[in-house]
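Quick start: read one record
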Amino acid sequence: KKSATYVLIINAEVAVTVEHIKSLPEFRQRPYERPTSSEQLIAIERVVDLDAPFRAVTVLLNDHLTQIHATHIVRATEGYTPTIKTSRRATVPIYSYMVATEPLPSDVWNSIGWASRETFSDARNMVIYAQRTADNRIAFGGRGAPYRFGSTVDSKFDISSAVHNKITSTMHSLFPSTRDALITHRWGGPLGITRDWFSGVTLNHNTGLATLGGYVGDGVAASYLGAKTLAHLICDTQEPVTRLPWAQHVSPSWEPEPFRWLGINALLKVPALSDIQEARNKSSSWLLSLLKRFTH
């Protein structure tokens, strides 16, 4: 057994503990600063389970199961949350994928009319997004991957030829001048989605367990604001961020399997079918009302 003041769980294979944190009043004065040299960071190989009532987290440390007790345990695991036993139905992992072209010459950029580095998406129902990179590539991403039974997360799912090819085809349809460009990079990873599609930042003062996440792919900016919100909740300081709707918002659990697998994969087909129907009829698809019923 080990003891710590704070345990931050980033995903099922990455966690750190900050030991010897100085007194809480001083921590309140500098809640966002990095640990000083007098504080110790311990890398944890894998998180096995959380035992909130006992303020403990079971981890794999140096090939041994170890239980760490802490005043606060922060679960910031997003799409990896289902890999923790007691949190398997808190979020579902939905994979998002991206491709990147080789650096494109100026004539291609001129034909597209993309002079600066704006990011963009469009109005289709199947989500896509793209940006011009600093080295003049197009990084283009989207959804479309199926949900894996049991909320399975595995690095082997980070590459999907079928989905990556669909994303590339979509990019070519939007930017025909990229058809001859090489695709040099392909990658992907799981997003964390809650049952009500609502991000949450919570702190249980009785158990010390804190959670934040459910960003549904918008976590670059939201995770920073979520961390600020949680820091003030832990320090018990009343600030505007602690009055945001996501503060202490608890989302309902997802349905058990196999209902979760059946429902999510059925709904994942709706955006693509809606796009086909709207392209044919030139009007909004009635299928969207079905999707909104289950995602709002």
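Residues 18-39 have pLDDT under 50 and may be disordered.
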